[in-house]
Structure of RidA family protein:
Amino acid sequence: MSNYNAVSAKNTENAPNGNGLYSQSVAFSHYNNLSAQLPIDPSTGKLVAGGIKEQAEQCFNNIKAIVDSIDHVMSDIVRITVFVKDIKDVDAVDEVYKTYFPTYVPARTTVAVAALPMDAMVQVEALLSHGVGSIPNAPQAGDLVKLTNNTPNAPTSALSTQTVAFSHYNYLSAQLPIDPTTGRFVIGGVQEQARQCLKNIKAILESIDVPFDDIVKMTIFVKDLKDMEAVNEVYSTFFPDSAIARTVAYVPARTVVEAADLPMGALVQMEAVVSHGDGTPPQAIEDRHGIVIWARNTDNAPKSSLSTQTVAFSHYNHLSGQLPLDPKTGKLVAGGVKEQAEQCLKNVKAIIESIDHVMEDVVKVNIFVKNIADMDAVDEVYKTFFPGGTPARRTVGVSALPEDALIQFDVVLGNAEGTPPQA
């Protein structure tokens, strides 16, 4: 399919520009990846006046301007991620949110982080379906159907849909450790909470007849990174799930970060991206059945028994979060944030090249940085790897990162040839 998909980056004057560092919207195949939107007035380039509600409204206005500029509508959004500085502000954000999604609600993740660019109180990110695909000259598949589903066997919310499928992917709302029978947190500590998060994910997947091992990417937000050893004990009992997966020791790509806070005071929250082999209609049978998940690791980047470096399905590759680890030693590189940023991106590049792709195939970059003030130094390095500033981008300041790193990069990559159906 390499002749029928293209990375299509778009920008509009009606939303804040990326100053050459990133594009507002980057489409590939059936998805548009939007850069996370800050509450910046595009006419001034500055934060809007007011408090959290005014900032939230500006974030959503910016998203809507981008969506409108590429001839889409807000109901084409399949996933929303809300980052706030103070978890107590979520109620005010939700009041604004409801006005933009009065009927249909996408999958959603909400997390409080240590810092946001420009000292904003809120930042909102959207992933958008792209029905016509990104063929340079012709429609790819017309208006594909977006499938939404909720099951009583997992927690439900009026503000989000448990899973939203479009084309060959399902995006799940981040799952909290809520027992769906009581609507309350499970009793116990972080292990019990981690188990409940994963049970909720499994219940959602079972409700749409999707096996657990169809998960291609997991993102874990924890209140305290010191809890990850306990979380991993539970995690390892869920992955691999099936006999086939155990045979090849399949585990999804994965990113782990420490959150400043989580909804309802949770200790852990988990988000999943899932392959959708059947696709959504009107994809033809030969285009949607039995597509293979490709999981790949290279010796030229750090390895982990708990994650796969890159997992491809259909027209996307999802990479695990890359830390500034030297793959030869398994230790953090010497130096400061510039050296660490460079090593992260070297690891990303090594993984991409190991699957016969190039950095220009990257459609989305997520940057998690320990000190948001370091971003000027990070950007100096970033420009050398992405000189055209094409990928969409998200930057958040986090409380802590694994290995006490100063920075971590998480990347989504277009997979031009797709992954084939089983023979």
